[in-house]
Amino acid sequence: QVQLVESGGGLVQAGGSLSLSCAASGGTLSSYAMGWFRQAPGKEREFVAAISWKHSRTYYADSVKGRFTISRDNAKNTVYLQMNSLKPEDTAVYYCAADAWGSGSTLAYEYDSWGQGTQVTVSS
Q1: d(Cα 47, Cα 70) in Å, to the nearest integer?
Q2: Are strands 32-39 and 92-100 parallel, antiparallel or unpaired?
Q3: CA-based nearest residue to 104, from 25, 48, 66
Q4: Is residue 103 classed exposed, middle or buried when 0-12, 13-18 and 19+ CB atoms within 10 A define those classes?
Q5: Backbone angles phi, psi at 43, to 5 degrees
Q6: Sign of the dihedral through C-alpha 66, 57, 50, 120
Q7: Cross-strand pairs, 95
Q8: Per residue in 32-66, is it b (16+ CB within 10 Å) or e — as a string?
Q9: What are 29-51's pLDDT values in tens digits?
Q10: Dihedral of CA 44/118/75/71: which sign?
């Protein structure tokens, strides 16, 4: 299984931006669909964005569409999540996940490998 490490979380004011990175090791990221999920305190983990392994098709939760952008750099074995116009309700721990040969599922159980998460806090 590929190992994933997220970075880039932090504290930002509402309306601000953050860029998350997910670096992979132990595998070639180009063979994986990658997803970003988040979990707020007391809530279930929810889908945020995904990018397929083939053609890099992207998918977004309605709550982040138009504000977040997922991208990948296979040469750097890294996936990114650019988050703009952040809202307090975006506050959560953000996780990246990998799904070998996946199509970019919105379902957490489809993903085989997970990072440890990075905290994003948006103040009002």
Answers
A1: 12
A2: antiparallel
A3: 48
A4: middle
A5: -120, 165
A6: negative
A7: 37
A8: bbbbbbbeeeeeebebbbbbbbeeeeebbbeebee
A9: 889 999 999 999 999 999 999 99
A10: positive
User: Which sign does the torsion angle of CA 9, 87, 52, 105 carry?
Assistant: positive
Q: Residue 86 is encoded by which pair of tokens?
A: 């952040």
Which residue do the tokens 């670096």 mark? 23
Radius of gyration of the chain (CA): 13
- Residue 102 pLDDT greater than 90, yes or no: no
Assign 120 a pLDDT band (cuts: 50, 70, 90): very high
* 27 contact partners, CB below 8 Å, separation of at least 6: 1, 2, 3, 98
CA distance 6 to 95: 7
Task: Give the mean pLDDT of 99-108.
Answer: 91
Residue 11: the pLDDT is 98
pLDDT of residue 6: 97
